[in-house]
């Protein structure tokens, strides 16, 4: 239940960060705003928009990082539970793979159906 909530907050935070970054103006757009290019038509005033959006982006980015750490914790817990469920340790599997297998059957050489007398001899050249 808690993991589902963290995943939902994580996804909403990621989408929010992407949307807010796309909404913000680049540094080159500030030069036009200083000459009065549409600054009076903004909701937050001439400087308030950049401060509000950058602060909200920072808050969402921090929430994204915190939920990332939470998801990493949940993944570690699941990995620990799986390792305690009776599955072999990967190090033990590596030791078994390097050990020569003596119980593996070896194929015997197959006898060919064609004997040497059935093959015609090449004519001798002089």
UniProtKB/TrEMBL annotation:
Taxonomic superkingdom: Bacteria
Protein's name in the database: Protein-export membrane protein SecG
Keyword vocabulary terms for this entry: Cell membrane, Membrane, Protein transport, Translocation, Transmembrane, Transmembrane helix, Transport
Task of the protein: Involved in protein export. Participates in an early event of protein translocation.
Ranges for region Disordered: 93-126
The keyword Transport is annotated on this UniProt entry: yes
Localization terms from the record: Cell membrane
Annotated TM spans: 52-74
Membrane topology note: Multi-pass membrane protein
Similarity section: Belongs to the SecG family.
Organism, scientific name: Aquipseudomonas alcaligenes
Feature: compositional bias, Basic and acidic residues: 108-118
């Amino acid at each position: 239940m808690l993991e589902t909530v963290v995943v939902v907050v994580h996804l909403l935070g990621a989408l929010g960060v992407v949307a807010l970054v796309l909404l913000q103006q680049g540094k080159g757009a500030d030069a036009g705003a200083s000459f009065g290019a549409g600054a009076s038509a903004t909701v937050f005033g001439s400087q308030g928009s950049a401060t509000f959006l950058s602060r909200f982006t920072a808050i969402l980015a921090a929430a994204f990082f915190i939920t990332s750490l939470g998801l990493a914790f949940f993944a570690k817990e699941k990995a620990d539970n799986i390792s305690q469920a009776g599955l072999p340790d990967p190090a033990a599997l590596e030791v078994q793979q390097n050990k020569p297998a003596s119980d593996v059957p070896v194929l015997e050489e197959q006898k060919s159906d064609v004997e040497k007398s059935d093959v015609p001899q090449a004519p001798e050249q002089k």
